[in-house]
Amino acid sequence: HEFIKKLNAKIGTKAGKFALPTEAQWEYACRAGSEKHYCFGGDKPGLLDYGWHVKNSESKTHPVGEKKPNAWGLYDMHGHAAEWCQDWYDRQYYENSPTDDPAGPEAGTARVVRGGFWGASAWRSRSGYRDHNSPRRFGRHLGVRVCLIPAE
User: Fold this and answer.
1) Residue 12 in this model has a pLDDT that exceeds 80
2) CA distance 144 to 69
3) Which of 54, 57, 83, 144 is most deeply packed, by most CB within 10 A?
4) What share of the chain is helix, strand, coil (3-state, %, to 5)?
5) Predicted local distance difference test score (pLDDT) of residue 136
6) Mean pLDDT confidence for 64-88
7) Which of 79-93, 94-108, 113-127 has the lowest mean pLDDT?
8) Is the per-residue pLDDT at 18 higher than 90?
9) CA distance 41 to 31
10) Nearest residue to 27 (alpha-carbon basis) of 80, 79, 85, 66
């Protein structure tokens, strides 16, 4: 959040503000229109072409853009680094949440992370897989993907 605050102060765009995506926004961007497990379909072997995970990463991150992008041109949505989302984590939130663009619980102790990471299995790199971490946690497997919230 400090990084995003500094980014907004430095860039100060009339187009909008940068923010962490909500969990729903992240998944929508990852799927890029797909309803399958991955942006490219439902088969795990295809993940080798789209993301870094335990089978191909050599236990490290790689420069962005070395794998294929999804249909909307977004790279490394599957694997590579787990990405922080704005939402607080609640394991049962989706059972009781609105179906249209849910914003997540109002409070919590852990934030949602999505996308798997270089050491995760193909299953943990799916579009719909969700995990969580304490906001105070950091590591070489966690990353940030900011989005631009348009000005009204």
Assistant:
1) no
2) 17
3) 83
4) 20, 20, 60
5) 84
6) 96
7) 94-108
8) yes
9) 9
10) 85
CA distance 32 to 43: 16
CA distances in angstroms from 42 to 18, 81, 111, 126, listed in the order given: 32, 21, 27, 9
- Per-residue 3-state assignment (H helix, E strand, C coil) for 108-151: CCCEEEECCCCCCCCHHHCCCCEEEECCCCCCCCEECCCEEEEC
Q: So what's the pLDDT on residue 98?
A: 75
Smallest CA-to-CA distance from 49 within 34, 38, 35 is with: 38
Give me the count of residues in the chain. Answer: 152
Amino acid identity at 1: H
Q: How far apart are CA 127 and CA 29, in angstroms?
A: 9
CA atoms of 149 and 134, how far apart (whole Å) = 25
As a whole number of angstroms, the distance between CA 20 and CA 144 comes to: 8
